[in-house]
Each structure stands twice: as C-alpha cells, then as structure tokens.
Design brief:
The structure is a single chain. About 30% of the residues lie in helices and about 30% in strands. It has about 425 residues and is an alpha+beta fold. α4 packs across α6 and α4 crosses α12. The protein binds adenosine-5'-triphosphate and magnesium ion. Magnesium ion (MG) binds next to β16.
Amino acid sequence: MRIAVNDVTPETKRATIIGWVHEIRDLGGLAFLLIRDRTGIIQVTIPKKKISAEVLSVFKEISRESVVRIEGEVKEIEKAPGGRELIPSSIEIISKSESPLPLDVVEKVSAELDTRFDNRFLDVRRPRVSSVFKIRSCILHTVEDSLYKKGFTQITTSKIVGSATEGGTELFPIAYFEKEAFLNQSPQLYKQMMMAAGLEKVLEIGPIFRAEEHNTTKHLNEATSIDVEVSFADHFEVMKLLEDLIVEIYEEVAVSCTAELASLEINNLKIPVAPFPRLTYEEAIGIASGKLAEGANYGDDISTSAERAIGEEIGCHYFIVDWPTSIRPYYAMPYEDRPSVCKAFDLMHPRMELSSGAERVHDYDQLVHQIKEKGLNPDSFSYYLSAFRYGMPPHAGWGLGTERLVATMLGLQNVREAVLFPRDRHRLVP
Ligand code: ATP
Ligand code: MG
C-alpha cells in the first residue's frame, strides 16, 4: 500500500511511496533520489554496492519528473530532510518523463510567465506555485463557509446572456443558434432579480467575461467574481460585511496555510484591521491631484496611476465612497438630498481596486429613468425591469475579484499568476 511521503517517519519500518523524481544525485558509489508528492519530499539513498543489480538497472533509467514507485526500508538519519531516508528494495518507473523538461521544476530563478503558462502542469508542480492555488482554494472555501453560516444562498446564474449588464464595449459576442448572445460581464442583474425572488441574501462565485483589450497586470478576460447581494441592507451594511469577510479570509489563510505561506516566503501575513479607512471620492481625487503630474479631476474615473498614488498615501485596505452618480452604473442609488452623488463604494488595496458595490435603486420608475440617463434603452432590460414591478425590496451588494484578492494578499506581480489558465488577448491556449 502506498503511503504519503510526509507520513513516512523515522519510526516507519517499511514503506512504499509513489511520487515524482524531484532530483537525482549520483556521487559514484552512492546515489540519491529526492521523491516528491503532494505532501512533501523524501530522500531515497542508494548505496550501489549493497543494492540489487535489478534496482540499479532501473535507477539508471530514471529521468527527473518521472513518476516512480519505490518500496524499501526506512532508516533514521539526521542529515536528511524529515530525519529519515528510504533504502530501496524495488523501484518501478510508472511513467517516464521526457528530457529535457520544458520548464525546470526545481529551478530557483523563476521562468518567464509565458513559459510557465504554456507548461502550467509543470509549473504547478513547484511548491511556491501550488501554494498560490491552495491558498486560493482556502479563500473561496472561507467565503462560502462564512456566508453560508450567515444565511446566504449560493446561486449559479447563466453566463450566456442576451444583453449586456451595462451596455458598453467590454462584451464577448458568441454565436447562439440564430441569435446574438454574449458571455456575461457580471451576474449583477441576476443577483438583483433574486432579491425580488425573496432569497434575501445571495452569493455567487463564478466566471465573469470582459473584453478588456489592454494588457495590464490587473485585468483578465475571464476572471472569477465573488458576488453578494443583500435585501433590506444599505451600502454601509454590505461594506461592513465585505471588510469583515476580508479580515476573516486573511485570518483563516494565516492559520490554515502556514506551509503554503512559508513556501511563498511570507513569514508574517499582515492581517488588515477593520473598520477600513473611508475616503470620499472627492478626498481621493484631492490626494491624486496633489501627487500626480497630470493631476486628477472631479468626475474622472480613478486612473491606475491615481489608484497607486492614493494607495501609497493610505497604505492599507480602504474604501472610496460617495461617487459621482455620472460615473457609476444606472443601478447605483443616488443620495436623496444630493442626487449627483451616489451610495456606491470601491474597496481598495493600496495596489488596486478589489471590489465595487452600492446600494441599488429598487424603484421601477427611478430605475427606468436612470437607464435612459445613461443613454441605454429600457426595452433591452425588460426581463430585469419586470422584477422591479411586483415588490422589490431595497437592497445592496458588491462584486469582489478573486484573482485580485489572491494577488494582493500574496504579493503576486500579475493577476494572471492567480489563475491556472489565464485568458488574455494573446492567450487562448492551454
Ligand atoms: P477596473 O476599473 O479596475 O478595471 P471595474 O471597475 O471595471 O475594474 P467592476 O465592474 O467594478 O470592475 O468589477 C468588480 C470587481 O471584479 C473589480 O473590483 C475586480 O476585482 C474584479 N474585476 C473586474 N474586471 C476584472 C478583470 N478584467 N480582471 C480581473 N478582475 C476583474
Ligand atoms: Mg469597479
């Protein structure tokens, strides 16, 4: 029976392990194999004179990254990792790896991103890369678990849609029989419709598709959005939900992913402290205009350079609130006494935007009016608008980008590193 590498202790007498050949060291009379599986690495020591001719002849055939099965005697030895080694009585090559490898699995200097993505299955064999995806898994699990306990219903809405969420050009058209259809940019309209359905608190974790043309380190064409919508809540309530969730995620990763953090050389994951500072949009623009040569004007979107300048100044997670209604989507709720400003917010990491949210418009007439104000045709939203005609509760929500959350937490330079198979303008394979 196979046992996991980390379960082999100095007390284990005999063991059969199956794993990848991490390294081969042949010192003449003595040879070593390092065998790796999901749990760790073990040293296999081959004293050539004391080992059978059969084992030796298989050993000579072994190439790095082959999958091998090794049975043998376990010996306590101080110098080897884990304080034990395996002396083989039999070796079998289960799947031989070709040489040379397109990507060096043990190499210390990291390869180019393109080489890594072209050979992602090899790339992920590296502990520091698999750690990113184990931490990502922990994050998504924490989100589901935390919100499930708070009474949220996890939903899955269609990604093939007949119209855009917000109009605009960021859409991928697809051929859908004889009709025109698109890949959905966001579950926004569907999660709002579930407020009319009475679910009250919904969570969706799913892909969003954006035809972003430009190559940036924070944009993907297919990203994973964590979407939340809550009935009878205002924007302040869902901001609190969001900041508490971010803190909980960091705390959970710090406790549950110690080995993964260590392999990423993160010794002390800094846990954000809630409540996060809140800047008004006007204050944020003020900071940016003071720090940027090109300035920043009220009414502009917050540019990437403005985002960085403000982030440098604040130095921790923060919210930007009270946005001009003119630059937020039609479904954001304007302040009653100041309709040019709306109850929208962005959650920011000092490096980039992580989430956008708002209290939503729930009144049918007001929503139709705001759709028209944006130059859009309410007729193309009739399926959405009808949900506002038969009893729609007030509601608020947000969308949080998983890859940006992972990349900012782990200090990854490019959000692509937080996706197994990133999609961008130049990458459709693998
Ligand atoms: P940005 O202005 O940074 O391009 P956005 O405001 O267009 O983002 P939203 O529509 O507000 O994005 O989406 C909510 C969240 O989803 C964003 O804050 C981000 O974390 C994530 N997100 C949106 N688009 C992308 C993308 N193309 N790649 C990666 N993450 C994205
Ligand atoms: Mg946004």
